[in-house]
């Protein structure tokens, strides 16, 4: 036990795999632990570096093990994979994590507090309800189509679904009508839950000046700002705004070789939820710019030269860099005034 300098811990629901190495990288311990044995094991262990792969439960175990005096590294899975030998087993995964944890300059995820995870839970729960509502609306429209009735497609027209159900009451058999009304009531219940969570997030943003400052950026609303602060509590972990945008996956993949530079599609790495929120907000900004058709607006100019989604991703990239700047330096977003010619 005294020789262990680094431990790779493969997390699981019930059975955890441990791989211990000394300072020279030699294996000195391999063991399986039940969930109830993990904390007592690290309590008896001499302080060392504990590496684990970023996954569900990683932040919880990182807090528990760090509280015992160990240094904990949460390593993204794509950086662990190159160190996993041959096939896929828990033992090989734990060994790969241990080796990755010894590499100099290995990127790691900042351990989140329980309060930070609570905010993320609220955001993810709201997104779950939004997906369920969309699915329920599509299902209701499909079921109505079985009886020859086409309902409006947009969510804003959901109220018309109730009117349609009432209008064709006599044309639908009683068992089917009851089920259709049940689906509509489910949609209404989801609407209420989404509205409650949206109000809670808005109140939290209004009460926190550091979050409300971020909403001054066009295309960044209360939900996006709250998600940014929850996912990125410490923006200084990124060297620059460009590193932050790259971490979000909003920069092109580099396919360069032999002195020729080739850039592909965006990498889509990092937090997919936050990236989606930024892109959706950017789409709204591009639509407004197209309608106003300002010659001085670089967004309007870009949208004329590039496809809609390409322009939206470019705006999302810029918004990400502005977000990082505001989190690091403070202040609010102030758009540049167009130069006047006289």
Description of the structure:
- This protein has 342 residues and is α/β, with parallel strands linked by helices.
- The chain has three domains: 6-101, Nucleotidyltransferase, domain 5; 114-207; 211-329, no CATH class.
- Helix content is 53%, strand content 11%.
- The protein contains 13 helices and seven strands.
- The chain has helices at 38-44, 58-66, 77-80, 90-101, 114-145, 158-167, 174-207, 209-212, 222-231, 241-247, 272-292, 298-305, 308-329, and strands at residues 6-10, 15-21, 27-34, 49-53, 71-75, 252-254, 263-266.
- Strand 4, helix 2 (58-66) and strand 5 form a beta-alpha-beta unit.
- The chain starts with 5 loop residues before the first strand and ends in a 13-residue tail after the last helix.
- The mean pLDDT is 87.
Write the topology of this structure:
Blueprint: E1 6-10, E2 15-21, E3 27-34, H1 38-44, E4 49-53, H2 58-66, E5 71-75, H3 77-80, H4 90-101, H5 114-145, H6 158-167, H7 174-207, H8 209-212, H9 222-231, H10 241-247, E6 252-254, E7 263-266, H11 272-292, H12 298-305, H13 308-329
Parallel strand pairs: 1-4, 4-5
Antiparallel strand pairs: 1-2, 2-3, 6-7
Tally of distinct domains: 3
Question: Which spans have pLDDT < 50 for at least 5 consecutive residues?
Answer: none
Major β-sheet annotation: 5 strands, mixed
Question: What order do the strands of the largest sheet run in, or round the barrel if closed?
Answer: 3-2-1-4-5
Rounded to the nearest angstrom, the distance between the terminal CA atoms is 79 Å
Gyration radius, in Å: 25 Å
In DSSP terms, counting alpha (H) and pi (I) runs of 4 or more, how many helices?
Answer: 13
Q: What is the count of β-strands?
A: 7
* Average pLDDT rating: 87
Taken in chain order, the helices and strands follow as EEEHEHEHHHHHHHHEEHHH
Morphology: globular
Determine the strand fraction and express it as a percent band: 5-15%
Classify the secondary structure makeup into a structural class.
alpha/beta
Oligomer: single chain
The amount of helix comes to 40-55%
């Amino acid at each position: 036990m005294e020789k262990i300098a680094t431990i790779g811990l493969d997390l699981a629901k019930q059975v955890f795999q441990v791989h211990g190495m000394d300072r020279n990288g030699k294996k000195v311990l391999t063991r399986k632990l039940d969930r109830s044995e993990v904390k007592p094991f690290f309590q008896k262990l001499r302080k060392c570096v504990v590496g684990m792969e970023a996954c569900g439960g990683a932040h919880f175990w990182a807090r528990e093990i760090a509280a015992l005096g160990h240094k904990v590294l949460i390593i993204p899975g794509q950086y662990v994979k190159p160190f996993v030998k041959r096939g896929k087993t828990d033992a090989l995964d734990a060994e790969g994590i241990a080796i990755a944890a010894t590499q100099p300059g290995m990127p790691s995820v900042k351990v989140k507090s329980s309060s930070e995870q609570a905010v993320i839970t609220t955001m993810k729960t709201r997104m779950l309800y939004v997906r369920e509502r969309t699915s329920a609306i599509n299902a209701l429209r499909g079921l109505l189509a079985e009886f020859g009735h086409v309902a409006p497609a947009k969510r804003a027209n959901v109220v018309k679904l109730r009117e349609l159900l009432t209008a064709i009451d006599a044309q639908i058999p009683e068992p089917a009508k009851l089920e259709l009304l049940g689906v509509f009531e489910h949609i209404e219940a989801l609407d209420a839950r989404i509205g409650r969570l949206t109000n809670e997030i808005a109140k939290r943003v209004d009460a926190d000046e550091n979050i409300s400052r971020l909403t001054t950026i066009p295309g960044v609303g209360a939900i996006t700002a709250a998600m940014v602060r929850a996912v990125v509590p410490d923006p200084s972990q990124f060297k620059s705004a460009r590193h932050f945008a790259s971490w979000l996956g909003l920069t092109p993949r580099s396919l360069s070789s032999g002195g020729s530079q080739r850039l592909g599609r965006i990498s889509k790495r990092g937090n997919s939820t936050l990236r989606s929120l930024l892109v959706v907000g950017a789409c709204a900004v591009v639509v407004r710019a197209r309608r106003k058709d300002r010659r001085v607006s670089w967004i309007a100019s870009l949208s004329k030269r590039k496809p809609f989604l390409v322009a939206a991703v470019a705006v999302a990239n810029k918004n990400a860099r502005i977000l990082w700047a505001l989190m690091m330096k403070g202040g609010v977003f102030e758009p540049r005034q167009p130069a006047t010619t006289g």
